[in-house]
Amino acid sequence: MTRPKYVEMASHNIRIIWNYIFTEDTDNCGQIHHEHNRILISKLVQNQKRPETQIATTLFHELLHKASNIFAYENELTENSINAIAELLTQAFVSNPDMGKYFVELAKMENKGGE
Predict the structure, then answer these.
(1) d(Cα 23, Cα 46) in Å, to the nearest integer?
(2) What is the pTM of this model?
(3) Residue 42: band (very low, low, confident or very high) from pLDDT cuts 50, 70, 90
(4) How many CB atoms lie under 10 A from the CB of residue 84?
(5) Second label for 5, Cα 20 to 30 Å away, from 31, 42, 62, 68?
(6) How many separate domains does the chain show?
């Protein structure tokens, strides 16, 4: 499976570090560093391999933190809201493969300069 190394969001080019291992005693699966435009994602939680859908949910989760940080200012999304939206986005893409195809085609079209 090919995972993106960078994601562009607004004017930010965010680096994604996959296979990050959190050394502190935590069940963290991901973390965003706003000041460095970097997302850290772990494939493990409590030394157990995580399913790919959970890893994808973590990516959405951290991207939502970044979006909230960029656009919401004082009214950032709550952790519960971010969790719920990330879960729903993951389910929407996993349960509806045509959505993913649509966005891949859209990206190809946009990168060519439109239709």
Answers:
(1) 11
(2) 0.87
(3) very high
(4) 13
(5) 68
(6) 1
